[in-house]
Each structure stands twice: as structure tokens, then as C-alpha cells.
Amino acid sequence: MIRELGEEYTTLLRKTYEGRVPGGADLVCYWFDKARAQMAAGQLERAGLVTTNSIRGGANRRVLDAICAQMRIFEAWSNEPWVNDGAAVHVSLVAFGHAHQATCLDGVAVNTIAADLTPHADTQTSDLTRAQRLRTNANTSFIGTQKNGPFDIDHDTAADWLQLPNPHGRSNAEILRPWANGLSVVRRDEHTWVIDFDKMSENDASLFEIPFGHVKQYVKPTRDNLRRDWHRLHWWCHGDPRPALKASLEAITRQIITPRVAKHRVFAWFSSAVLPDSAVVSIARADDTTFGILHSRFHELWALRMGTSLEDRPRYTPTTCFETFPFPAGLTPADTAHQRTEALEGGALIPADLPDTLPLALPAEHSEQNKAPAPVHQAQAAITSIALRPAAMAIAQAARRLNTLRQAWLNPPEWTHTVPEVVPLGLSASPYPNRIVPKPGFEKELAKRTLTNLYNLRPAWLAAAHAQLDAAVAAAYGWADYTANMPDDEILRRLLALNLQRSTSEGA
Q1: Torsion of CA 45, 48, 54, 57, to 10 degrees
Q2: Between helices 297-306 and 488-506, what is the axis angle to 10°?
């Protein structure tokens, strides 16, 4: 908004609506709250507004939360295509107030419309807007670095610079890293690298002579007129270098990365030497069990409903999608915070030091308001413990198989070969992952082998691998009645019940 409306107006607007509209919300949210306030004062009976479909989640949804707490949304169209001045977007149309007419969502009569513009027959058991962030999921998922400038370079340039000496005798490997954005996940890796001085002083950064000169020539002009003092004065540094992310990757050799915005919710392994961009989310775990849980049907459903979207592509965020997700008991990020792994026969990795069996707290131990709905209670009533280590092993083995099959499709050995990465000057081995490049004559065919194209096709072998993974994750939840035919709404009800139980026990 600052760019469109100016800093003075935006600051005044946010101050005026402080406590009612979150600072990061879109401009239209102020009109929603303005209408709500007029209804509360008896000056207005009903209102209808058109907004982008991002009103359904994140900071934007807070205004709909307030509306649903005081009145009701009686009609809405949650996700409609809209073309305006040649720009194709998806919008939501929302009518709310004290009207007595029937409730209608997307042209269908429903009992209740929740703040995320979904229907709920029973808001106590199915309203995902009640889900809370869980402390057990904290400090694990991170948005990548925000460069705020052209710090990226091609592979050949990076390889040349890694062979250059510096006045202080230190290697350029300290400030050059392979880089991954969303396209690196869903398309082919273009082997882009990035210069990253982290939070070095200008004097320290300048001792990496050639990379610093490049940044001074190409980045500094883009920063000289920026509004934020830190970005302008520290032009050689990324806008947000994400120190917590980097610290979390130091103890592991690989990380899980997913695009923030993508048609398919896919997760992929990347070396921890790769620096994630702000267009992706990095999960700082190296075990296949965590990878499998994230790539299960259960997490995908949760992320689709808890996240927002950009046009027609779902958006994934650490706070709403990851930190609210109830992992199977004993396999939460808090349980695996040590980041250590144990290798199984066949190469799959599970979290280290898992007990063979984990006792489970029954839903009845929780408050009446937050306890599991009847189907969940019945499904778990006889389960007092989980065979935790076997469950983690089954997930890890299924996840590893899924990844192995995908990699064989993405990079057929008949079409590709592996090239060792450059060894930087002064080092005895390369700290970087090897590169996969096409064999001569296979460049065009290999260019079509992307995760997006694979999940568009969804061949039978891929569906079968995911089904095996889903069954393993369901067993870790103790859902003995799970089948592939279980309705999405039933899965979401169970996950919401687990979220509410855990948030209650955490005192959230």
C-alpha cells in the first residue's frame, strides 16, 4: 500500500484501524471493518464487497473473523474468476450483516459460512478458522532470504570466482552458494548461484574483492533510493538474510523445500548448502519421516484449506499451514528438534532415539469444547499407544520410495549424468552438491521432466506411491479405519480436533 498510497497516508490508516485491521492486510479489509463498525453502531444493516480471494486466509481473514463473531455472512462466492483491464484474478464476493435470508455459498444453501468462506454444519468440529498455531511446530519452517537486489549470478561465474584468491586469504565459498526459488522446485534447476554477505560489515565484505565489486556495481544503484534505512545503508547485504534459517541448517546435510505458491503442493530435497529464496519455505529436517508426513494427503489437505492463494494457485506459509498442522504424536517438530537421524537398511532416515512405543492421551481427557468429535473418538477409543518407531520406519520407507521413483522420472540415468561441483580454492573437497546435467541430445526431452508436469500427469505409479505413504501416515495417527475413500472433510475434522487438543494442552 505504501507504494500506491504513499507512506504518510498508509501510516495514518494503519494507526486509525490499529487493533481492528492487521498491518499487513489488503486495503479492501479496511472497508470490511468500516462496514462492520457501522452495523455495530446501528447505522447499516448489511453490506456486500468484492475482494481478491486472499480474504479467506492470513492477515486478511481477521476482518472476517470479527464479522462472524458479531453477525453472519449470509451469502458468498468464495473463488470466482474475474478479468479487469486484461488482468485475470480470482475474487471472493461476500455479503454480511443482520439479514434474515437463507445462507448461500457458491450458489448452494448451507447452514453456516465460516470466515474462510467454507460451509460448516457444525462450527465446533469443522471450522478450521479455530485452528491455533502450535508451539511444538515452532522454529522449524522458514521463508527463504529476501535479496532485494540482483545478487544472483550464473554457475560459470560462481565457478570462476571460487578459484580466485582474496586479500585476507579466505575463500569465496564463504559468500557464494547455490540458490533455489520456487521454479527450482517445480521446473528444472537452472543452477543459479547467489552472493550472500549475510550481515558482514562493509569492510569485511569488501575483502571478498570480486563478488563485492559485482554487488557494488549492480546492487547498490537499486538500493540508493530505497525508503528503508537498513536496506539503503547496508546495500551489500540481503534485505532479510534470515539468520534463524541459516542457523537451523548448520547441523543437517539436506533440507525440505516447498514453493510458497504452486499449482501442486510438492516438497523436494535440497542440499543444506543451497540458499532458499523468499519464494520458498524451507523445513529444517533431514529425516524421511518428516518429509513423508508433509507429503501426505493429510498435510496437503490441511495446507490447501489453511493457506491462501495467488490467482488460482495455492499459497503455503509457515504460520498458517505448517505451524498449525498437528503432526502424529511423537513425530512433531518438537520431538525431532535435535535434527539427528538414524539410517535404516535401504537408506531411509528416521529421527534418532525414537521409543518403540508411545502412550497416547485419550480425547476424553480434554475439555468438552475441544475434545475430538464423535467419529474421531470412536476411531481412537481403543488405542492407548502407538508403535512409534515402526510407524516412523514405515513412513520413511514409503517416502524414500516416492522420492526415488520421482527422481528416476525427473532425471533418467539414460538421459543424464552427474557432474562433480567445483572445489573452491584452498579447500580439499567441494562443499556443494553435484549437478545433474543432460547427456547430449536429451536436452529437450529432459526439459519437460518437471514436478509440475509429473503431478499434472499423475501416473499410476505415482498415485500408488502416494497411497502407500498415506496409509503409513494414517497408521501413525492411529486411524485404523482410514481408507483412500475417507472424505476430505472427515480428515480435516480429525486434524482440527488434534490441533485444538494440543493447543489446549499448550495453553495457547
Answers
A1: 20
A2: 80
Place of cell 518407531: 389
Residue 281, Ramachandran bin (φ over 0: left; ψ between -120 and 50: alpha; else beta)? beta
Element (H, E) at 142: strand 141-143
The neighbouring-strand residues paired with 48 are 95
Q: Which tens digit of pLDDT belongs to each residue from 79-135?
A: 888 877 666 678 899 999 987 888 999 999 998 898 888 887 555 667 888 899 999
Q: Tell me the per-residue pLDDT of 442-482, one tens digit each, with 9 for 90 and over.
A: 999 999 999 999 999 999 999 999 999 999 999 999 999 99
Bridge partners of 72, per DSSP, are 97
3-state DSSP assignment of residue 406: helix
**Cell numbers given for 56:** 479467506
DSSP states of 45-64: SEEEEEEEGGGGSGGGHHHH
- Upper half-sphere CA count for residue 430 (Cβ side, 13 Å): 16
Length of the chain: 508
Cα 237 to its chain centre, rounded Å, is 25
Burial class (CB in 10 A: 0-12, 13-18, 19+), 367: exposed
- The answer to whether residues 271 and 433 touch, using CB atoms and an 8 Å cutoff, is yes
CB 1 within 8 A of CB 42: no
Q: Check if the beta carbon of residue 185 is closer than 8 Å to that of residue 258.
A: yes
CB of 314 within 8 A of CB of 291? Answer: no
Report the C-alpha gap between 370 and 498 in whole angstroms: 9
pLDDT of residue 445: 94
What are the beta bridge partners of residue 51?
92
In this structure, is the dihedral angle defined by the CA atoms of residues 100, 105, 488 and 314, taken in order, positive or negative?
negative
Please, are residues 332 and 354 in contact by the beta-carbon 8 Å criterion? no
Backbone angles phi, psi at 332, to 5 degrees: -75, 165
**Nine-digit cell string for 127:** 471450522
Cα–Cα distance measured from residue 249 to residue 263, given in angstroms and rounded to the nearest whole number: 27
Beta bridge mates, 50: 93
Nearest to 434 by CA among 422, 446, 451: 422
**Residue 349, beta-bridge partner list:** 343
161: cell is 570466482
Contact 215, 195 (CB under 8 A): yes
Q: How far apart are CA 245 and CA 238, in angstroms?
A: 14
pLDDT tens figures, 190-234: 899 999 999 999 999 999 999 999 999 999 999 998 888 889 999
Q: Which residue in 490, 321, 295, 302 sits closest to 398, CA to CA?
A: 295
Enumerate the β-bridge partners of residue 141: 283
Q: Are 133 and 140 in contact (CB under 8 A)?
A: no
